[in-house]
């Protein structure tokens, strides 16, 4: 009971300290108070449209969420790295939206850790220092897991694009052989193709229709996706367009190179899995086999004795 009271008192003290820190941090400075008298007033803006069904709760929690997002921005992954991973994952989110998801994940981790601490305190007893460390670990775990999930999404999307690349390269080669130009071939392939790479090529078509050259749009796609094979493909395609090299031959050779690279990666993965499959054989099946082979002999020796 003493441990439960200590943990509850610690939670109350931390909550009061956070409220005081938040109020003091949001206190307007002298510059903020003098700014309306030193510049022209800004035009009135309409109230923001709520993004959730709980509009009032959203408006109440918006200042707290903005402060939490700034804290995560300061101590989390670099902004450029997060923006690159969001682009590779194809989520279409901004960095601020992702930071808000990280804050929600940290809050969920904190709540789960706090529930675990209360349960342990009621059953076995947990010290306040241990309880505070567990809550901090829960919040940090929520942040890290959300970051790991984003990295995994970006990697899986890159793998899907790598699998789709040879097929779309051959479709482009067929379109070019039929008489289409580079831009027309890309538009024709995007009209019939599906998948992650087809979506990226649709963005290339949108960029070219907006006035960007095809070479620049392809380079933007390679930088946005971040797959090495796609970067080599776009580089070869760019060189072929600039130098007038037969484009169909270049596309076919690039598709063959990607398939060969995928085959090598599968062979390497199979070799690693083969080594991993030896672990249960050596540590589980082999000992059981030895026991079955030796046990009858031991039983016979005992009967003879």
Structure description:
With 305 residues, the chain is mainly alpha-helical. It has helices spanning 2-25, 30-38, 55-75, 79-89, 95-123, 128-177, 182-192, 196-209, 214-225, 228-243, 247-304. Helix 5 (95-123) packs antiparallel against helix 6 and helix 6 (128-177) crosses helix 11. The longest helix is centred in the C-terminal third of the chain and has 58 residues, at 247-304.
Features:
305 residues, 11 helices, 0% strand, flat
Helix/strand layout:
Blueprint: H1 2-25, H2 30-38, H3 55-75, H4 79-89, H5 95-123, H6 128-177, H7 182-192, H8 196-209, H9 214-225, H10 228-243, H11 247-304
Helix pairs in contact: 3-5, 4-6, 5-6, 6-7, 6-11, 7-8, 8-9, 9-10, 10-11
Helix content: over 70%
Number of DSSP helical runs: 11
Low-confidence spans: pLDDT under 50, at least 5 residues?
Answer: 42-47, 49-54
- Terminal-residue CA separation: 62 Å
User: What is the molecular shape?
Assistant: flat
Largest beta-sheet characterization: none
Number of strands: 0
Over the alpha carbons, how many angstroms does the gyration radius reach?
30 Å
Mean pLDDT across the residues is 78
What is the succession of H and E elements?
HHHHHHHHHHH
* Assembly status: single chain
What structural category characterises the helix and strand content?
mainly alpha
Beta-strand portion reads under 5%
Organism: Actinotalea lenta
Membrane topology: Multi-pass membrane protein
Protein name: Type II secretion system F family protein
Main location: membrane
């Amino acid at each position: 009971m003493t441990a439960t009271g200590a943990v509850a008192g610690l939670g109350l003290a931390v909550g009061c300290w956070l409220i005081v820190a938040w109020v003091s941090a949001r206190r307007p400075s002298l510059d903020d108070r003098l700014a309306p008298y030193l510049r022209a007033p800004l035009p009135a803006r309409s109230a923001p449209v709520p993004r959730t069904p709980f509009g009032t709760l959203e408006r109440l929690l918006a200042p707290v969420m903005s402060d939490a997002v700034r804290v995560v921005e300061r101590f989390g992954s670099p902004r450029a790295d997060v923006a690159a991973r969001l682009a590779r994952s194809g989520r279409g989110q901004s960095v601020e939206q992702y930071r808000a998801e990280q804050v929600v994940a940290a809050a969920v981790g904190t709540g789960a850790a706090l529930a675990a601490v209360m349960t342990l305190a009621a059953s076995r007893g947990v010290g306040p220092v241990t309880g505070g460390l567990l809550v901090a670990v829960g919040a940090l775990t929520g942040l890290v897991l959300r970051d790991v999930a984003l990295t995994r999404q970006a990697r899986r999307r890159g793998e899907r694009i790598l699998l789709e690349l040879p097929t779309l390269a051959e479709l482009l080669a067929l379109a070019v052989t039929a008489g289409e130009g580079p831009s027309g071939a890309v538009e024709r392939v995007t009209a019939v193709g599906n998948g992650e790479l087809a979506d990226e090529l649709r963005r290339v078509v949108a960029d070219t229709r907006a006035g960007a050259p095809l070479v620049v749009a392809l380079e933007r796609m390679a930088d946005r996706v971040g797959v090495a094979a796609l970067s080599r493909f776009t580089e070869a395609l760019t060189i072929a367009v600039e130098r007038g090299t037969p484009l169909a031959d270049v596309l076919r050779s690039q598709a063959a190179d990607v398939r060969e690279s995928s085959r090598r990666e599968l062979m390497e993965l199979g070799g690693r899995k083969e080594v991993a499959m030896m672990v249960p054989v050596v540590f589980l099946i082999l000992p059981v086999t030895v026991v079955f082979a030796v046990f009858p002999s031991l039983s016979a020796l005992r009967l003879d004795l």
